[in-house]
């Protein structure tokens, strides 16, 4: 088949997040399909942007054909980001007929986090007489309303709601990463016979053999904490408001006299503020490090005794969660402390750690103490259960096959 995947934020190993479009597409190419990813030239989640000036640029990465459309850069979630979205969608809409004639897609997938790409994907699918698939990463407009406090009457939110409703009505299939969405989608018009759950996952080959060594400066910094006789509680990922890292710092403050160090690796909108807080409060056992290349993630996670992931307490998570970093934690065989209240809990399902309530520093501190009190063998057994769970349910060869069987 010819599969056209429309994802504004698509990345690659060369560019950074987001990785799911790349991993799915790579498996489809390996299975003999042709894949075209249509993406924007600028995304806030990428570590490196493709070089695009004035006209779209075509590139082939691991057999996947990428088309990068030029768009303006932006900072934050204001008017600049809206302009970026609108520019991308308008260009792809305007080019739809040429794109269809050149690629002749059998399947068109709308997969850009925000739902307005369904209108462009629908145009492409109708021109090509192709199947139309809507892939849900996060529920929009529920996410900006419930997480960011936007008014349901805001014009942008009204537009998102129209797009979401149109997607459920017009798509031939809907694929969701979130597992508990059936009631919400049915309330917005989806025939649930169209719904298929395909969660996030990992690429097994990235975990095969010896991992590339960790950057020496990062390795040595962590080694200094361990040499002081302290266990390592680690977090690797985005430093944003949804990640609830203030709660982890609150827990670190209460544990400042205990033999534990907190290592936070990554970047994001909140990192500068969090670093300032660490300095102001004298949290000298909190180490904040820059992001490491994706290939070094296995080596980084091997340095952690306990891997932490936290969430805000928001009703939105009743629909479920599908975090990439948790799949990495589990594949690395780490015992996990999960601070969450959600419709699903992979840590509890796998038995690979402890789950405590969100937004509670005392609960996080207590959970960390309980895991640290366990023997290394007990924590290793938790980690092995997590790895087995991911290998059984969350590898991209399995997920890519499940995706195509669901939509064809």
TrEMBL record:
This is Glycosyltransferase WbuB. GO terms for molecular function: glycosyltransferase activity. PANTHER family: GLYCOSYLTRANSFERASE, GLYCOSYLTRANSFERASE (GROUP I). Coiled coil: none annotated. CDD domains: GT4_WbuB-like. Keywords: Transferase. It comes from Piscinibacter gummiphilus. It comes from the Bacteria. Signal peptide: none annotated. The keyword Transferase applies. Gene3D superfamilies: Glycogen Phosphorylase B.
